Amino acid sequence: MWTEFIDEVIRQLERIRASQAERIREAGRRIAGAIREGHDLYVFGAGHAGILAEESFYRAGGLMLANPILAPGLTTTVRPITMTTEVERLPGYARLILNATSLGSGDVLIIHSVSGRNPVPVEMAVEGRRRGAIVVAITSLAYSSSVPSRVPGGMRLFEVADIVIDNCGVVGDAVLPLPDGQTRFGPTSTITGVAILHSIFAEVVSELISQGEEPPVFISANLDGGDEINRRRLERYRAHIHYLNPI
Hints:
The termini are far apart. The strands form two sheets. Strands 2-1-3-4-5 form a five-stranded parallel beta sheet, with helices on both faces. It has a two-stranded antiparallel sheet with strand order 6-7. The protein has one domain (26-237): 3-Layer(aba) Sandwich (Rossmann fold). It is built from nine helices and seven strands, in the order ααβαβααβαβαβββαα. Helices cover 42% and strands 13% of the residues. The longest helix is centred in the last third of the chain and has 22 residues, at 189-210.
């Protein structure tokens, strides 16, 4: 059965490549433009969607400028973990989260939410745009279109973002059926989400290279000379790398 899971992941990735290419390119261009103009990049997700935020920063081969928003009550280190479900549904919390960041006009905010229906990611998109940021949503259009919003006013993430990238996932995220005919297992959104994230970053790097700029990319610290290269690149962009700041 594991091969069926791999087959479905491949199918979703192929659908992403076929249908989301222009949106991924647009996101990459907008981020590269923001970087050239001295603006910041942020990445957010709640619960397991926040794995993308963790993947985005301080990563060998990754973009140095991605600042994760790891909000209290919304990371997978919370105990009991069920708290993340309740916190994601709190109206008004997104504004408090953004108040703890420097997000402002011209910055870019990537928000990952598969269902796109809960108050925190939706209100974060709305508030981010109100502050003048460019909001990029990574979501499942099939899933989000099939469920009602939990946000006062009825908005879903794909309806309030500037750029919407569909992860081409199924309703409920999981793809393999149990014998009961109702329950499914084998979620795909982390795999496809990370693929989309690094595809966007690849486009950012390509855009910067085309402009004759050295892209701010981490080299593995376990390669000889890696520490010195990283130190030099980090110093150049230090003002835009907020995750290096002490708590």
